[in-house]
Amino acid sequence: VQLVESGGGLAQPGGSLRLSCLASGFTFSNYAMGWFRQAPGKEREFVAAVTHSGTTTYYADSVKGRFTISRDNAKNTLYLQMNSLKPEDTAFYYCARGYGSRRLNYDYWGQGTQVTVSS
Q1: Which of 25, 46, 88, 92 has the most crowded Cβ, counting Cβ within 10 A?
Q2: pLDDT by residue (tens digit) across 51-71?
Q3: Which residues is 59 bridged to in the sheet?
Q4: Do residues 21 and 3 make contact, with C-beta atoms less than 8 angstroms apart?
Q5: Residue 111: closest CA among 21, 41, 16
Q6: pLDDT tens column, 21-54
Q7: How many CB atoms lie under 10 A from the CB of residue 24?
Q8: How far apart are the C-alpha atoms of 56 and 87, rounded to whole Å?
C-alpha cells in the first residue's frame, strides 16, 4: 500500500489550494479515505473523510464550508479542495486509508504535504 500526497505549498489568507493523494497497492474503490493534518506542536487532527463510493462526506467543524473532499476511483486519487484558507490551516496534511474521524480507524498513511497560509 502506498499513498502519495501532492499539491501543498504557500497560499495567502483567503486563497485556495488543492491537495491530491495517489493511492496504489490496493483496490482504492473498496476503501473509505480521509485527510488529517498536524500543525507544529499539536496532535494530528481529523479534517475530512469520504466513503468508498464518494457519495458521503464528513468534515471537521473547523473546515466545514471551506474544504471539500472528493475522489476519482478511476484515477485512484483522493482530493482535498481548500478554499478561504486561514493561517490556522497551516500544517502538514496527510491522506490515510480508513473511515470516520478517529486516527485509530486508519491503517495506512501517506508521508504528508506541507501547507502554509501566510501573507
Answers
A1: 46
A2: 999 999 999 999 999 999 999
A3: 48
A4: yes
A5: 21
A6: 999 999 999 999 999 999 999 999 999 999 999 9
A7: 10
A8: 28
